[in-house]
Specification:
This is DUF3108 domain-containing protein. It comes from Pandoraea terrae. With 275 residues, the protein is mostly beta strands. The chain is built from five helices and 16 strands. It has two domains: 1-34, no CATH class; 35-206 and 222-238 and 255-269, no CATH class. 15% of the residues lie in helices and 49% in strands. It has a 16-stranded mixed beta sheet that branches. A hairpin with a 2-residue loop joins β4 and β5. α1 packs antiparallel against α2 (16-28). The longest helix is centred in the first third of the chain and has 13 residues, at 16-28. The chain is globular.
Length: 275
């Protein structure tokens, strides 16, 4: 049995700390998890599959940038960057930070293309509850959602300016923490319902659950797959793959073909590091 499968076997469903211990054994060969703070870092490759170049060029902002940079029509699979994600856990708190850095070819075309996301919140009975989510693209203002449990509202900010309030739905999550929300928990077999924020709005989503083997490079991984049900024609297709047992996210695929003619693919590069 390889080390990845061995780690999965060691992960006891329903116990986040045991799950982190399994990842520690997988990543470093020794258990570094203790009663204090645990930190995990993971690196993902970010690829863009352009399945409809003409649709992509229908977007005026994209077309002007590509032509101005002397680019021809993008087509096929293009490596566009690397995403570094750091998860910090205590017994009842979580903090997740994600930094997406563009590949050299993208950095030459799009200035300040770095994407920073931050999610923090509480852990109760092994579940994640978002308290604040922030997203910043390049030099634009931060888009932030703050969960107000007392007032039962979600406050949305553009930079420092409050721009909207929404009623607080039950079980609200966010785009960054949702892929990690099943660590140490038993993955439900029934459809999963969630309301996720991107710092601008909230979107209800339903995912169907299945199992399959996922191939990354030359390695096969037993995986649990979540696939979003499309309700509206312009809903983005979302698929997530998790390592069966530990439920650590291996791959996230977002299909934006309806508007942009592209598919964004984020795939785990190697074993996560536990610090």
């Amino acid at each position: 049995m390889n080390t990845l499968l061995d780690a999965a076997v060691r992960c006891f469903a329903g116990n986040l700390r045991h799950c982190l211990q399994a990842l520690a054994l997988f990543a470093a060969g020794t258990c570094l998890v203790h009663a204090g703070t645990t930190r995990i870092t993971a690196t993902y490759d970010l690829d863009l599959n352009v399945d409809s170049p003409s649709r992509l060029l229908m977007q005026p902002d994209v077309k002007s940038v590509l032509i101005g940079a002397g680019f021809g029509i993008l087509n096929g699979n293009v490596h566009v960057g690397v995403v570094e994600e750091t998860l910090t856990f205590t017994d009842n708190k979580f903090d997740i930070r994600s930094v997406g850095k563009p590949a050299e070819i993208v950095a030459k075309v799009f200035k300040n293309a770095t994407i920073v996301r931050q999610s923090d919140g509480n852990i109760s009975a092994g579940r994640f509850f978002t308290a604040r989510y922030m997203e910043r693209r390049g030099e634009s203002y931060e888009k932030t959602a703050v969960i107000d449990t007392r007032g039962k509202k979600v406050h949305f900010y553009d930079g420092q300016n409050l721009v909207a309030d929404s009623p607080l739905p039950g079980g609200v999550t966010d785009n960054l923490s949702f892929p990690y929300a099943f660590l140490g928990r038993k993955m439900p077999a029934a459809p999963i319902h969630a309301v996720a924020t991107d710092g601008r709005t909230m979107r209800p989503m339903t995912f169907d659950v299945s199992e399959e083997m996922l191939v990354i490079g030359k390695q096969n991984y037993p995986a649990v797959k979540l696939r979003r049900r499309k309700i509206e024609s312009d809903d983005a297709g979302i698929e997530l793959w998790f390592l069966r047992g530990s439920n650590f996210p291996l791959r996230v695929r977002v299909e934006m073909s309806q508007k942009y003619g592209v598919i964004v693919d984020q795939t785990l590069r190697g074993a996560p590091a536990v610090l």
